[in-house]
């Protein structure tokens, strides 16, 4: 029903914009990753695989990448463990307060990400709220120093930030489950546990996958929480990229690492799309 | 806490545990926000229990802090401009995805939506390389381009969702009755998408105000608010940061409540027009 001209007018501007400001930059990043830096700190456009060889040769890069993935995996796991039962509670026991409780999940997202990370820093620091509270009630005599500037602080903060992101898709998936399926399961004699594991949980998997992907991918690429709360042992892969683009001035190597991250992220997105399709009913 | 589960006949032995868990998760989500607000009134600094010498001093200092308010103005400029860019491109992008067929459509869809889930560092770095290569000096303008581009994803998803609920017959009727595409767009399509567009605009605005990862790589001399705060965090922290965050939180909360009320009212009237 729409003319060719209409379709061209709505397609062309966003298509051009996306090509120039998204596709072109990614391609440029791809090119950079094959270039190198001369001893005079000039970027040389000679195509080679040195940056990628560096990534494999130097333990610091792939160890940091593995550590980042381990941090991201823990954030994902904790967000799901915190988020799933809450989403389930909202969907099945929310009653009249459902809307209000749903809004209460979203409200923390309106406090800036940076500010929430900062708030955790003021809580976990050696003269922070938690340590002074523990000493105030005489539970400890000295400040606990593992709380801040550790992978623990990074995992805690990122879990706090990404838990709402896992709750929302899980809640949406649970809300889509026809309630008569649940009733049918009860009527046919299934115990509540059987109903949950055989009916409700399988139908909520697409939401779980979406939430898990969000939590994992976004924490994997984070560099602000580690800078603010991680200390030397909480450094993540993006922090290395940031320093390569700053003081260390090695854009090509930084581009190679970013591209590696991009490949990981895009493959995870494909994987999660597959999983969501496989488990979605109807 | 019984009120939470009232009105529901379906009690099981597990609902008590679920309620406890829910309360604990909410406590975890709100603890840092409560601490943030409480310590904005603490004369003794950002830590230390119990809080001492409650005072408005930090707010007084904040109101006389020129650089913070400059950065707030910068952030507002960036947010409005980014909102304009992403809506102007996101609305047609949603229309294109909904009703046009063209080669590379699947790739286009993925590309547009990618910044929604891609860590900001990749979007920020790749754009900074582009600006470097074309010798565009970093400034608020480059941040606007970055936010505008990344947030097309939000405009597109919201408007596309709105289009799925649109009554196609209205557009057809308009075209059959002799209105041209332009008139149909402005008089039928857009009014029907109003709620999606306002929702997208609000979301884009707040996301831009809060954005830091992309801005981090595109910043020139003028700071946005999150980058100004970031700079101060590295120099040593005072409750002034709690104070400015508290003000912004209260401001956003009021905005959401107003928006939520408006939407409920609009949806309420839409419902009463329905078959019942």
Summed up, the helix count of chain B is: 11
Give the biggest beta sheet of chain B. Answer: none
In the CATH hierarchy, what is the superfamily of chain A? MetI-like
Distance between the termini of chain A: 29 Å
User: Going across the major beta sheet of chain A, what is the strand order?
Assistant: 1-2
Q: Kindly state the mean pLDDT of chain A as a whole number?
A: 90
The parts of chain B where pLDDT drops under 50 for at least 5 residues are 1-9, 271-276
Structural class of chain A: mainly alpha
Q: Helix segment count of chain A?
A: 12
CATH architecture of chain A: Orthogonal Bundle
Q: Rg of chain A to the nearest angstrom?
A: 24 Å
What's the architecture of the largest domain in chain B, going by CATH? Orthogonal Bundle
Using CB atoms under 8 Å apart, which protein chain pair has the greatest interface?
A-B, 90 and 88 residues
Query: What is the level 1 CATH name of the largest domain in chain B?
Result: Mainly Alpha
How many distinct folded domains of chain A?
1
Oligomer: heterodimer
Number of strands of chain B: 0
Q: What's the shape of chain A?
A: globular
Description:
The complex is a heterodimer of chains A (282) and B (276). In chain A, helix 5 (113-124) packs parallel to helix 10 and helix 11 (237-245) runs antiparallel to helix 12 (251-279). The longest helix of chain A is centred in the first third of the chain and has 35 residues, at 59-93. Chain A has 282 residues and is an all-alpha fold. Chain A is built from twelve helices and two strands, in the order αββααααααααααα. Chain A has a single domain (52-279), classed as Orthogonal Bundle (MetI-like fold), CATH 1.10.3720.10. Chain A has a two-stranded antiparallel sheet. The two termini of chain A are 29 Å apart. With 276 residues, chain B is mainly α. Chain B folds into two domains: 2-58, no CATH class; 59-272, MetI-like (MetI-like fold, Orthogonal Bundle), CATH 1.10.3720.10. In chain B, 75% of the residues lie in helices and 0% in strands. Chain B is built from eleven helices and no strands. Chain B has helices at 15-39, 57-63, 66-99, 105-117, 120-133, 140-164, 168-176, 181-210, 213-218, 225-235, 239-272. In chain B, helix 4 (105-117) packs across helix 6 (140-164). Chain B is globular. The two termini of chain B are 35 Å apart. Residues 1-9 and 271-276 of chain B have low confidence and may be disordered. The interface between A and B is large, with 90 and 88 residues.
């Amino acid at each position: 029903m729409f003319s060719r001209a209409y379709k061209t007018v709505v397609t062309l501007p966003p298509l051009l914009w996306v090509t120039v400001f998204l596709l072109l930059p990614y391609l440029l990043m791809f090119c950079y990753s094959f270039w190198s830096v001369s001893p005079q700190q000039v970027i040389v456009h000679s195509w080679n695989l040195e940056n990628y060889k560096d990534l494999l040769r130097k333990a610091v890069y792939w160890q940091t990448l593995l550590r980042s993935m381990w941090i991201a995996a823990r954030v994902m796991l904790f967000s799901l463990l915190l988020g799933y039962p809450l989403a389930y509670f909202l969907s099945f026991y929310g009653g009249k307060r459902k809307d209000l409780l749903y809004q209460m999940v979203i409200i923390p997202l309106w406090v800036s990400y940076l500010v929430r990370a900062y708030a955790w820093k003021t809580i976990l620091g050696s003269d922070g709220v938690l340590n002074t509270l523990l000493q105030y009630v005489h539970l400890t005599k000295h400040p606990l120093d593992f709380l801040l500037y550790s992978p623990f602080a990074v995992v805690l903060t990122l879990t706090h930030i990404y838990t709402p992101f896992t709750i929302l898709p899980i809640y949406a998936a649970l809300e889509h489950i026809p309630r008569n399926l649940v009733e049918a399961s009860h009527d046919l004699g299934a115990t509540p546990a059987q109903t949950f594991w055989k009916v409700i949980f399988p139908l909520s998997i697409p939401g779980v996958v979406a939430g898990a992907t969000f939590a994992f991918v976004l924490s994997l690429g984070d560099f602000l929480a580690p800078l603010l709360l991680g200390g030397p042992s909480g450094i993540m892969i993006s922090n290395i990229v940031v320093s390569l683009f700053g003081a260390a001035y090695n854009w090509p190597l930084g581009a190679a690492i970013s591209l590696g991250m991009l490949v990981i992220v895009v493959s995870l997105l494909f994987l999660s799309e597959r999983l969501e399709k496989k488990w979605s009913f109807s | 806490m019984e009120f939470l589960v009232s009105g529901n006949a379906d009690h099981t032995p597990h609902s008590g545990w679920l309620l406890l868990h829910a309360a604990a998760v909410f406590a975890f989500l709100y603890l840092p926000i409560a601490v943030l607000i409480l310590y904005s009134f603490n004369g003794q600094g950002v830590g230390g229990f119990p809080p001492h010498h409650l005072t408005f001093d930090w707010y007084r200092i904040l109101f006389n802090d020129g650089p913070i308010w400059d950065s707030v103005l910068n952030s507002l400029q960036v947010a409005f401009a980014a909102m304009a860019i992403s809506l102007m491109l996101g609305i047609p992008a949603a229309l294109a995805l909904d009703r046009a067929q063209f080669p590379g459509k699947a790739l286009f869809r993925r590309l547009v939506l990618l910044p929604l889930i891609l860590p900001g560092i990749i979007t920020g770095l790749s754009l900074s390389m582009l600006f470097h290569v074309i010798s565009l000096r970093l400034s608020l303008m480059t941040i606007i381009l970055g936010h505008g581009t990344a947030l097309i994803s939000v405009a597109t998803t919201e408007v596309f969702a709105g289009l799925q609920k649109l009554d196609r017959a209205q557009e057809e009727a308009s075209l059959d009755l002799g209105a041209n595409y332009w008139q149909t767009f402005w008089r039928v399509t857009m009014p029907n998408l109003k709620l999606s567009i306002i929702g997208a605009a609000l979301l884009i605005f707040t996301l831009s105000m809060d954005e830091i990862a992309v801005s981090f790589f595109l910043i020139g001399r003028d700071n946005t608010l999150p980058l100004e705060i970031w700079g101060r965090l590295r120099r040593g922290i005072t409750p002034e940061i709690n104070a400015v965050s508290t003000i912004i939180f209260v401001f956003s909360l009021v905005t959401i409540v107003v928006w939520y009320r408006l939407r409920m009212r609009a949806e309420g009237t839409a419902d009463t027009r329905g078959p019942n």
